[in-house]
Structure formats: C-alpha cells, structure tokens
Amino acid sequence: MKCAITRSNGQSSTTYKEKPEFFSRTLELYSSPTGGQSYDIVCALQGVTEDNRVELPFEFTWPERTELSPGSKWLPNPSFEHECGGPLPPTYYRGSSNEQLVEYFLEARLYTGGRYNAAQEVRCPLNYRPSPSIPSPIPQVPDARTIYSRTGIIARTHRLHPEYDPDEGWRARIKHSWNKDKDTTPYANYKIDVSCPSVVTSGQPVILSLSLVHLERSKDIPDPPPVYLRRISVRLSSCLRVRIPSRSLFGSSDMDESHNDKHIFLEKSFNMGEGLLMYDGMTATTAEVPLRLAPAFSTYGLELTQKLKVELWGECAREKFRFTPIQGPILVVACGNAPSLPPPPTPAHKDAKATESAAEAPPSMEEDTAPPPYQVLDKS
Fold first, then answer.
1. Which of 4, 42, 43, 373 has the greatest number of CB atoms lying within 10 Å of its CB?
2. CA–CA gap between residue 257 and residue 240 (Å, rounded)
3. Which whole-number Å values give the CA distances from 370 to 102, 105, 279, 322, 359, in the listed order?
4. Where does the record place the region Disordered (predicted)?
5. Residues 6+ apart with CB under 8 A from 64
6. How far is CA 338 from the centre of its chain?
C-alpha cells in the first residue's frame, strides 16, 4: 500500500509518505546443483515450451487478512485499521499529485552470480477483489428523509381545475397567481418513492423501481392528475480519506485529507412535450457499473466510502418539483461474487391515505409498453 499527503507552507512543500506491507510469501523455484550456464534446468523440467520458455509451476495460498505488523506508529481510529489482522483491502488506485494505491504483485528474481544481487527482476501485478459479507435479505438504499418522502408532493394551482383554459391570457394568469395560496385553489397531493438494492454488481446495470400514488386532491378534481418526469440522475459519490502518522515533540497525531469523486450511472432528461408520463411500478435502468470501481474498504492509511444518490425532476400541472428520494451507502461486489439479485420491489407505502387511494394509480405496465394517458371524460 502507498499513501501520501503534501503540505505547503507558502515557499515550499513537503510530501509525507507511508508504504506498509500486508503480507509476503517467498519460495525458491529452482536451484542448479552445478555452476556455469545451468542448462540442467531444461532437463530437470523436461524441456521447454512452444514459445521457448521454461515453466516453473508453483502455488500459494492467498490470505484473507493482513499478516505483517505495520508498526506502532498508526494510532487507533474507528475509521482505519491500526494493527495487523484486519481484512485485506481490494486492489485500488487513485492518481493525482499524490498516488494513493493498494497493489498486489508477483515478483520473480533471477540470480546468476550470487544470492544477494539479482541479475533480473520481473513483476506481475495481481488484481484482488475480496468476497464481501453480503446481508440476506439484501437491504434497500435508505430513504433520504426529505419532506417530499414523508408527506408527498403538493401541487396547488388553478391549472388542475377541469375547466382550465390552457390558452388563458396574461390578465388571467396574474389574477390566478394572486389567489394561488387560497383554500379555493385546487390541489393534488401525490407521493413518489424509489427502491434500489444496496448491493450492486460491477459490470451490471442498477435497476430502480419507482412508485407513484395519489394521496388526496380537491373534490372538484374528478381524476388523478398526470405527473411527468423531466429528469433523473443516479450518481455514486466516492470519498477517499488519507491519513499519515505524524510525530513531534508535542505528541502523536495524524495528518489527513479527503478526495471526492463522482461516477454518473444515469443522467437522462425528457424535454420533448410535457416529459415522460410517470406510472406506478415503472423502472429505470442505469449504465453498467464500471468494472474498475473498487468496493468500499478501510486499512491503515486509506478509507474508501461510497454513497448512491438518486434525484428526480418533474412536474404536475406545470408545478415543478425536484427532490432526492433515496441516498445512502452501497456495496459494490465483483461479478463472480455477486448474489442473484431479484428486481427491486415496489416501495411499500407507509401512509394510510396512500393505501386507501392506491387504486387510483395507473396499473403496472410492461417496460416496452407506454402507459395510457389520463383523460377527463365529458360527464354530460
């Protein structure tokens, strides 16, 4: 592992580095009983391969936890490891002015003149992704606990009235703007929830499930008003904390700094017409989670945390809304370690009013079938 922090004092800067090791294995693959050119290696290994190479087969057991002591300089910290025995972190790299990395490699050394100075050295990097502990059942990304998530979204406008004239003049618009907050102005209260598993798989997309339920509305509004989606954003925020032990005459402490990165999984706008008509049970599929994305981890000098954030923009009767339905930590697993993830369930409605009026929401539709538009029928 390599971690570094640079401190500047105006005229100059100093970079502090640490390179603790997690484990090490050493194995002698071949030793010639004779001197000279040592051609006996060819006979001992029964010849050479088709590409004129000599193969030296070997195997070793990869540990799951650190084995080498990092020393006493790492102070106890709930966010970091400070002694050996902790889980091995995954392969990780973040390039900037200071490289922060976790690397594993095989190193072969060829000695020809003695056992101290290698004539040749070859290093082969290894990619390590530990098998994480996956909870069962898999929890969902937590609710962001906004006011929209608790009480729903309220649209209060004269445009909800069945007799609203979309071609009204500017005088009528000014008049209605003055009376917008009065109790006589029609209103509609609806709730949007998003469900997403907190375990995602690298190389696979993330599937979100959206629910739309109309809670209540003015008595003069005969049918639930249509709700349109204007934009959806799904982003992963990664925060890398770096610490370097510091010693001085006044005691021991840690230098630390943070690096933030964002990964866009889905960024889509619906600008045609009124937008995308929302319906209960609709789904949204993101791009594939990057294979190079490392899962969250913590070790001596590095801690990586990740959070998923979903934002929605939309409108009802041209009353716009923007809110964050879910935001919270997620677990990224490699494709080979991933469990069989079912589609996310439709979010459960905790509001009693939502349960009573759930029948007013449009029915669930297949992904490739557009939902029918809302229509106001002529009661005459």
1. 4
2. 8
3. 48, 52, 10, 24, 19
4. 339-380
5. 87, 88, 130
6. 15
pTM for the model? 0.79
Q: Which helix (H) or strand (E) holds 264?
A: strand 251-269
Q: What is the pLDDT of residue 191?
A: 96
Relative to beta strand 13-18, strand 3-8 is antiparallel
Q: What is the DSSP letter of 267?
A: E
Q: What distance in Å separates the CA atoms of residue 7 and residue 13, rounded to the nearest whole number?
A: 5
CATH 3.40.630.30 fits 147-360, yes or no: no
Domain boundaries, the chain: 147-360
Does the pLDDT of residue 184 top 80, yes or no? no
Which run of H or of E encompasses 283?
A: strand 283-288
Q: Which residue in this structure is represented by tokens 């790492």?
A: 74
Please report how many Cα atoms fall inside a 13 Å half-sphere around the Cα of residue 83, on the Cβ side. Answer: 2
Residue (of 184, 265, 171, 257) closest to 219 by Cα position: 184
pLDDT digits (tens, 9 = 90+) for 44-103: 665 577 777 777 888 888 999 999 998 878 999 999 999 999 999 999 999 888 899 999
- pLDDT one-digit tens code per residue, 248-295: 767 678 899 999 999 999 999 999 999 999 999 999 999 999 998 999
> Residues 328, 262, 101, 339: is their CA dihedral positive or negative?
positive
